[in-house]
UniProtKB/TrEMBL annotation:
Example GO molecular function: arylsulfatase activity
Similarity field: Belongs to the sulfatase family.
SUPFAM superfamilies linked to this entry: Alkaline phosphatase-like (SSF53649)
Domain of life: Bacteria
Domain Sulfatase N-terminal: 6-374
Protein name: Sulfatase
Record keywords, A-Z: Hydrolase
PANTHER family, per database record: ARYLSULFATASE FAMILY MEMBER, ENDO-4-O-SULFATASE
Amino acid sequence: MLKQRPDILFLVLDTQRSDRLSCYGYPREISPHLDRFSQSATRFSNAVAAAQWTVPSHASMFTGLYPSAHQVVQSYSVLPPEIPTLAERLSAGGYYTAGFCNNPLVGVINNGLRRGFYSFLNYSGLLTSRPNQAGLASGWVGRYRQSFKRLLAGMLNQVQDSFARSELLLALSFSPLMVPIWQTALSFKGNTAKSLNDAAKLLIDRPGLSADQPAFAFINLMGTHMPYHPPRAYVERFAPHVLRDKAAQHYLRHFNGDVYGWLAPLAGSLDVDQKATLDGMYNAEVAYQDAQVGAFLQALQESGRLENTLVVICSDHGEHLGEKELIGHSISLYNELVQVPLLIRDPAGHFTAGLRSDVVSTRCLFQTMLTAAGLASEAEAALSLAQSPDLARRIFAEAIPPQNVLNLLQKRQPELVKAHACDQSRRAVWIGSHKLIETGSRLELYDFCNDPDETLDLSDIFPENVELLQDYLQGFAGESLANLTPDRAPGFDDPEVQRRLRDLGYLED
């Protein structure tokens, strides 16, 4: 029994695929520290991100809403002021709220996702900044220096904001001349070690916190995001051919510098050597980040702080590494992008250690953390993932094309836009063991339990299943999403609907 409200640690492993963690079945030992942590946590085997890329996915986790409800779906979007964030709710409830962010789309761009944080440290950007932090400077010299840094950081943030919102500037930033400049100047992947050290100091030493005040720490790590530059020891272990093969080195250099290539579909399949290079380098980054996270968790364990900390570890989305002729995370709703790792360790005992196989949405992490803090409404508490699994629950995801990226694709490779329907919004629904993806008029049905790689489209084989799931998608699109509850679809309790679900294998007698 906890004596006080728990600290909450929300760790987002940006761009981490679930199938590249050993605790999720990857055959190589790639993540021993997260594997060890998972043994005392609830491991969700079918966690689904609400969106396929950083901005809308984080906005869903921060608000508890799907993308079409919160409307933060573009790099230039701003969260409406009437929608409260997780940090705002926790701060109003007495939590000390701190962010340690390595993704410039969350920590630098002024899109409203920083709202509610008393302290927010950016480790990416032209200058590491503390936009929400106060009380650190002492004396007139300290105040002057802090004011100057805030002014300079504000000016630089405006420049970075402009690149996110301007099609012309975004196109310029993808030019061969600019790419190496902004990758270096923006510290594109941030500083994993420093962000974890700073977060550990807050949670262990508690500077600035009043007695018995609980803390909320949000951390975003970018270790597994492109470009790939892991330490040599990890390359030697997971991609040794890259250290010896000139062709692999040439391909990797080109890939790391081709930002447009991170966004565009492939014109054809990767060859075996290219695929091996991307897989190996991605795996090396996963293993390196795992070691750093492991040291961080060990420090918290040794300090005793984990005994009163709700720990939520997840990803905002995964990554295509050539599968289905796709790279990056711009457009699809395939499992490579939206089936993400989710581990929850709860000192209060509301989550049982072990595997949970029901399908859940990461957007419900908002309600889950509010419930753990004792700040959720009755309706919000009903959506907490601590509730008993509901096999009848239907889960949705949305992929709304990033407009600036789409404009570039249409100018450079309109044939690929057409071939992959890059200009079409996608929606997906999960219920029972099936998943339906709707892209315009195209429908794809998969058995995600028995075919996680989505190799067999069942839409022609089970048209009744397609019809039923499409009805759910149409209802999803037509509902007032701000009031959406995922527990049961409209009309779910109708006896005829129940019969159809049972006949199709979605419900057990």
